[in-house]
Every structure is written in structure tokens, then in C-alpha cells.
Amino acid sequence: MTATSAPGQGAEYAATASEAYQAALRVIESVEPRIADATRKELADQRDSLKLIASENYASPAVLLTMGTWFSDKYAEGTIGHRFYAACQNVDTVEALAAEHARELFGAQYAYAQPHSGIDANLVAYWAILATRVEAPGLAELGAKNVNDLSEADWESLRAKMGNQRLLGMSLDTGGHLTHGFRPNISGKMFYQRQYGTDPATGFLDYSAVAAAAREFKPLVLVAGYSAYPRRVNFAKMREIADEVGATLMVDMAHFAGLVAGKVFTGDEDPVPHAHVVTTTTHKSLRGPRGGLVLATEEFAPAVDKGCPMVLGGPLSHVMAAKAVALAEARQPEFRTYAQAVADNAQAMADGFIKRDAGLVTGGTDNHLVLLDVTSFGLTGRQAESALLDAGIVTNRNAIPADPNGAWYTSGIRFGSPALTTRGFGADEFDRVADLVVEVLKNTQPATGPNGPSKAKYTIADGVAARVHAAATELLDANPLYPGLTL
Ligand code: DSN
User: Ligand 1 centre and the CA of 22: distance in Å?
Assistant: First the structure.
């Protein structure tokens, strides 16, 4: 399957989708032509660049078209069958179908399709864990109906009773996400937090170090999952660690949900049978609309189900409908072939870097992403990201473990295989992608400004960006994006 179709669909589907987009653009153009122009330009730009951002993909026309309907106009705060607004019967159908597909696809006891993003999904999960696992602090005992009725002294005593609110998550520089307890994020404020990292010598997760940190810190929540760790995680081991210290295991599988759905990650590498709560986005390797999802065991389901209005604004019913369509696609056999190709292609890209002597964090990959240490080219991540973009290669800079350039300039570039795999790229094309990346980086030099060496400015040897962009265009033209689509 390519980005031109959905599983089991062919040329007729692509032609019909093309007509739909042409009509939609004509309608938009009649009101605000600049938006129609920007929409056309976005497609042209996505068609003409190597999209290697590990968290991006190309959703099918069925998923994209599902978002453009009148479900967008409906308020539906609450949950299925229990809404704060009238006339939600069709939203109930949509949300129930999204949840059913998610449960069936991932083998989860319960699924919640409302989160608007991965961050929202994580907030719902944290709320649900606190609500389920932290003993109610006994307002009634203090003669108060809500916290605003409490005296200062009672408030302090209440705080003392609130118990363990500690979170242990993977650090940002070793591949964790902002929402895993990073201090500038709300997760680092609502919990006492501590971070685990990776083995400084290998870059791999060290489960005995995680266990030691958990024994010492005794967290309420152990968070596993990552957005920039290029290796698989043994979730059975993470659950053992959580159980030993009485923690709740929450797994954020936003990046690799497609590999779980496509049965590339099974057994100990499938988080769903091992975690109490699993969160994900739907738009990364899962190839759905931009949004979030929470899966949970029955114990946590009642609290997760209160996500709206506890944590979330009204559900985006048009996006929940598109989640249902994307999850239906992911249940087709073709999606397993796609997911395996995502992993194989990341491997091919990593091998391509290794044979060209480029330094990789952990020395390779066994998931969908590759983290290149660009200090081997004498560059910062910021310089490398910009130089690659000049050559039509879209990536994002990313911190590497103990990054000497910090989280803004960084020393790494993160590459992912999901989007170009959707486009039809195979192992040979990913090897060529590695070749083009290395050609740009070895011809890029840091620039020196009035204050000395710059971490942002750079120069590329004459002609290299144009030559690489032309070579990228050849690869892209051989694997067109939505080829039946003319605007
Ligand atoms: N922004 C996503 C990513 O790129 O990994 C995570 O939030």
C-alpha cells in the first residue's frame, strides 16, 4: 500500500479522492483564496521533500476527508451515552466505533478516543492514575466540601495526606518526552519527579539502573516509552520493576504505536498486556489523524472515561471519526506489511549511515527511528537540520545523551522511516537517503560570526544542496505522493 490508497483500495479510490479534493479546493477558494493556495503549496512541498521527521506520516485520503465534515460543528462533552449536550447520538456511534477498533486492534480492555493530542492523552492518564491510586484525602473529615473551604492549616494537613505523587520517567536527552516529568512541562510540576537515563557507554536502557532508581525513589507512576530512543523496550521487565515497588506502569507508545498495531512489537515488546495504562498519538507510525488515544485496564477505565470534562475540552468528533477510519485501516493485513517495512527501512537507513562512518546513538536501530550524532561532522543539530532542509531533506534536530549543545542547538538529528515507507520507499531508497544526508553534512561547515563560531550559522559547499535536492527529487518522483491527485 502507498499513500495513494487505503488497504484494499485502488485506482478508482484514488481518482474519487482527487475529485473530492478538487471540489473542496474550489469551495475554499471562493471564500479565502490564500488558504486554498497555501493548501496547494503544502501538498507541493510535501511531494518535493524527503520527509524524515520520525513523528510524521501521510494519512490516507479516507482519513483526511473524514475530518472535513459537520461532526466538527457538534459539541459532545461527556462520554458515550452520557453527554452534557443533546443530540449526540451520531457522535456516540463515532466514538464507540473508534474505541471498538482500538480495543480490537491492540487487544486492550478499554479504549478512550477523545484526547486531542499525545500530551492530552498523557494528562488524562496521569489524572486517572492519581484518581485511582491515591487515596481520597478526606475533605469531609475536615468539614469541607471543596478545597476552597479549607483553612490554611487544614490545607497543609490535606497536602500531607495526599500521599505518594512521584513519577519516574525517561530523561529528555536520552529519548524520553517532555510529558514524562520534564521540569518545564506540567508533568514535572504536578509530580515529584525523577528521571532515568540510558547506559552512558552503550546508549541502551539499563534495566537494572531503572530498577535501582525505582527502589530508591518509590514512584507512584513509572513511565516507559520514548520519542527519540532508537531501540525496543522490554515492557515485561518494566512491569516487573513497577510491581516490585508498587508503581503503576504507564507506557507512552506514541512513536511506535504503528509497530505495535502491525505486530512488529509482540510479546515483551508489546506494551498493552504489560502496562496498566497506555497512551498514544494516532498520527505518527499509526498513520491516522492528528490526535490521541488512551488504552487502559478495567481498573483505570472509570477514571480515564472522565477525561472530558476533567482534563479535556469537548471532543473533536470529526477527528474521532477519522481515528475510527485509520484504526479500521490498521486492522487490515496490509498494515502489518507496512509496519514491518517501517522497521526494515529504518534498519537499512542506519546501515547506510554506519557504512559511511556516521556516528549513531546506540550504534543503530531496531525500531522506526535513527539518531545521528552530528558532532562527527563538526556541526550542531541546528546547523545540520538547516543544511539538510536546504537540500530538500526535512528532519528535526534532537538532543543526544548528555548533549554538549543543550536542547535548543542540540548535537543530533532524528530520522524516521514511517512517512517515506508509506510513500513506497524500500531498503535501497533508504540507503540512498543516508548517502544524500552524509553528502550534505560532510560538505557543511560551521560559520564564524563576529562573536566567534556560531552554533546556528553554516555554509554548504557550492552546488551541493542543489545536486542533492535533484537526486532526492528523482527518488520522490519514482514514489509519488497521492499520484492520482491533481489540484
Ligand atoms: N512532537 C513529537 C515528536 O516529534 O516526537 C512528540 O510530541
Answer: 31
Place of cell 540507503: 431
443 lines ligand 1 (CB under 6 A): no
- Which of 284, 368, 395, 398 has most ligand 1 atoms within 8 Å of its beta carbon, as the pocket-test mutant? 284
- Going by alpha carbons, the residue nearest to atom 1 of ligand 1 is 55
116, 255, 371, 385, best to mutate for ligand 1 pocket (most atoms within 8 Å of CB): 255
CB 326 within 8 A of CB 1: no
Q: Please identify every residue annotated as catalytic.
A: 75, 77, 252, 281, 284, 290
Same fold, 71-331 and 336-478: no
Helix 381-390 × helix 464-478 angle, to 10°: 70
One of 3.30.930.10, 2.30.30.230, 3.40.30.10, 3.40.640.10 is the CATH number of 71-331, namely 3.40.640.10
* Residue 398 backbone dihedrals phi, psi, to 5 degrees: -150, 140
Distance, CA 226 to ligand 1 centroid (Å)? 9
Cβ(273)–Cβ(248) under 8 Å? Answer: no
Q: In DSSP terms, which residues pair with 416 in a beta bridge? A: 369
Nearest residue to 356 (alpha-carbon basis) of 377, 382, 336: 377
The three-class DSSP label of residue 177 is: coil
Q: What is the pLDDT along the chain (487 residues), one digit of tens a residue?
A: 455 456 557 888 889 999 999 999 999 999 999 999 999 999 999 999 999 999 999 999 999 999 999 999 999 999 999 999 999 999 999 999 999 999 999 999 999 999 999 999 999 999 999 989 876 556 666 676 666 777 777 777 766 666 658 999 999 999 999 999 998 899 988 898 999 999 999 999 999 999 999 999 999 999 999 999 999 999 999 999 999 999 999 999 999 999 999 999 999 999 999 999 999 999 999 999 999 999 999 999 999 999 999 999 999 999 999 999 999 999 999 999 999 999 999 999 999 999 999 999 999 999 999 999 999 999 999 999 999 999 999 999 999 999 999 999 999 999 999 999 999 999 999 999 999 999 999 999 999 878 888 999 999 999 999 999 999 999 999 999 998 888 8
User: For the domain 336-478, what is the CATH code?
Assistant: 3.90.1150.10
| CA gap 244, 230 in Å, rounded | 27
Which sequence spans correspond to the domains of the chain? Answer: 71-331, 336-478
d(CA 23, CA 165) in angstroms, rounded, equals 53
CA quadruple 5, 9, 11, 12: dihedral sign: negative
Grid cell for residue 384:
545540520
